[in-house]
Design a protein that fits this description.
The complex is a heterodimer of chains A (229) and B (325). Chain A has eleven helices and no strands. Chain A has 229 residues and is an all-alpha fold. Chain B is 22% helix and 20% strand. With 325 residues, chain B is an alpha+beta fold. Chain B has a domain of 209 residues: Alpha-Beta Complex (Sulfite Oxidase, Chain A, domain 2). Chain B contains nine helices and twelve strands. In chain B, strands 3, 4, 7, 8, 9, 11 and 12 form a seven-stranded mixed sheet that branches. In chain B, strands 2-1-10-5-6 form a five-stranded mixed sheet. The chains are: A mainly alpha (229), B alpha+beta (325). Chains A and B meet through helix 1, helix 2, helix 3 and helix 4 of A and helix 1 and helix 2 of B.
Chain lengths: 229, 325
């Protein structure tokens, strides 16, 4: 034991736990959904419950994956960068389940009904557009594709903002009248997007410099000095 | 309350229906993982729906097969008691349909009066017990089609509103009937929520209100109405979207001008005064061409006037039902 620094051992264990928590946390809604289904607890309208739950989980995960970069740039929480991809992929998993529930379970793949359900309803169109935008992103989420696409990879993956925006629009348009919760997601998304704009980034960098100049144990510095794992 | 025991469905039948729904839920969850092979499996399951039924007078422990089916006039089975009393759109208690039954427990419905007035010759305030004594309670099995795209078949007890309206003698100037729900935020906590003009109000044209299908319901499945279903007394207008069937009524006024309902005030482009079930008038959010009957999985086509076209179409002769949605 003496050969290992206890601090670093704790840190790597902490890292593993956090990493595991992301996967467990992302899969938990699916587990709970299946559990509820097996026990007949999906309300009297189970298909609608499955649609709503998969959709909400997808949106939450998408917003969380978009929160990773600001968490790193603003709070210096760089570990969050490693969660962007898994969170995004899990969001895509729930989007797929959401779409399959709608098209297969709900509409039995009936082309006429599906066409009507999608093209008559602006909320359905917005949702479909958001889902379709995520397809190329999920397909190119590997390191191989990152290498192959080079600079274009980043450009392509900026589409995720548009997808998230469309997902919020989809949500706003589908609720009956109380739009507070969908607008809350919209507000969170707006804050996350603003945190990425140049003026905000510059302002934060200036603040951090000033903080570093005044105190030696500023939080961002401490985090930054940790070895990346 | 006089309720024949024959009108009460025994608990074991509800229970067996519950089991069926559990299986449905299981399958629905399973098919999330096996979506490719799901549709046909779901179809075959939904066609084997066991009937929700009424027991014969001696019914207690007899097998389900000996029980006469409780169905609407189209032959569709009544929705299970558990679903009718456990899945409720009732914003005065909650916007969560599954929470209404729990949150409305203990809602006091007696004493309760309904004030009938406005443009009438004989305004009168009735106790609910007066209404029960004065008007014969009939069993009426009607479809309920929610604007959100789901539907139920519900065996109500109640009486035609027409009888009550005749008693108060509407004046010739009365053109519409306006209904109002109890306003008491301490008992109906949802009325504290902003965004709506509480109390809930609804309206019918006088001839719609006088139509024999228009019911004041006081019970369902042979039992006194439960709070989550609009106790102690509510409207049932089965050819209109469910929100027209206002719950927990305290006031009925005959008026000259078309009343503004809560939903018309909240979203006039979405909810019209008539709100007749109409598969040809789409809603921005919900398909009105199809619906899901609670307890079934595949969709069914929505019928014009919710299947009551013969009875009510004459009310709207010559009217543009797309403009008057």
């Amino acid at each position: 034991m003496a050969a290992f620094a206890p601090g670093s051992w704790l840190r790597s264990r902490e890292v593993a736990l956090l990493q595991a928590a992301v996967h467990v946390g992302a899969l938990l809604p699916l587990a709970l959904l299946i559990w509820a289904g097996l026990h007949g607890n999906l309300t009297a309208n189970p298909i609608q419950a499955i649609t709503a739950r998969t959709g909400k989980t997808a949106l939450v995960l998408l917003v969380l994956s978009l929160a990773c970069t600001p968490a790193s740039t603003i709070f210096g929480f760089r570990r969050a960068l490693r969660w962007r991809r898994p969170l995004g992929m899990y969001a895509f998993l729930y989007v797929s389940l959401h779409f399959l529930t709608f098209s297969v379970l709900d509409y039995g793949l009936d082309p006429g009904l599906l066409r009507q359900a999608i093209f008559e309803k602006r909320y359905a169109l917005a949702g479909l557009a958001a889902g379709l935008l995520l397809v190329p992103l999920a397909m190119t989420a590997t390191r191989g594709w990152m290498r192959r696409l080079g600079k274009n990879w980043k450009r392509l993956h900026k589409l995720v903002y548009l997808a998230a925006l469309l997902a919020v629009v989809h949500y706003v348009w589908l609720v009956k009248s109380d739009t507070r919760v969908p607008y809350l997601y919209g507000a969170i998304l707006a804050v996350l997007l603003m945190a990425r704009t140049r003026p905000v980034k510059r302002g934060i960098a200036a603040l951090q410099r000033r903080a570093r100049g005044q105190t030696t144990s500023a939080e961002p510095k401490a985090v930054r000095s940790r070895p990346s794992v | 309350m006089k309720i024949r025991s024959s009108e009460i469905t025994s608990e074991h039948l509800y229970y067996s229906r519950r089991q069926f729904l559990k299986r449905v839920g299981t399958l629905a969850a399973g098919s999330l993982l096996l979506s490719a092979c799901a549709p046909s499996a779901l179809r075959s399951l939904s066609t084997s729906t066991p009937a929700a039924t009424g027991t014969p007078p001696t019914g207690g422990g007899e097998p389900a097969i000996a029980v006469s089916k409780q169905t609407d006039e189209l032959g569709d089975s009544a929705t299970s008691f558990d679903d009718v009393t456990g899945y409720n759109n009732y914003y005065e208690f909650s916007t969560d349909k599954e929470a209404v039954a729990y949150l409305s427990k203990g809602f006091v419905t007696a004493p309760w009066t309904v004030a009938v007035g406005g443009l009438v010759n004989k305004p009168k305030t009735y106790g609910v017990e007066d209404l029960l004594a004065r008007f014969t309670q009939e069993e009426r099995i009607y479809r309920l089609r929610c604007v959100e795209g789901w539907s139920m078949v519900i065996p109500w007890q109640g009486f035609s509103l027409a009888g009550l309206l005749r008693e108060v003698e509407p004046m010739s100037t009365a053109k519409y009937v306006r209904f109002e729900t109890l306003y008491d935020p301490s008992r109906l906590p949802g009325q504290n929520a902003g965004g709506y003009q509480w109390p809930y109000a609804e309206g019918l044209r006088l001839d719609e209100a006088m139509h024999p299908l228009t019911t004041l319901a006081t019970g369902l499945y042979g039992k006194t109405l439960l709070p989550q279903n609009g106790a102690p007394i509510r409207v049932v207008a089965p050819w209109k979207y469910g929100f027209k069937s206002i719950k927990a009524i305290v006031k009925i006024d005959l008026v000259e001008e078309q009343p503004v309902s809560l939903w018309m005030a909240a979203a006039p482009n979405e909810y019209g005064f008539y709100s007749n079930v109409n598969p040809d008038v789409p809603h921005p959010r919900w398909s009105q061409a199809t619906e899901r009957r609670i307890g079934e999985l595949s969709r069914r086509k929505t019928l014009p006037f919710n299947g009551y076209v013969e009875e009510v179409a004459p009310l709207y002769a010559g009217m543009d039902l797309k403009a008057n949605y």
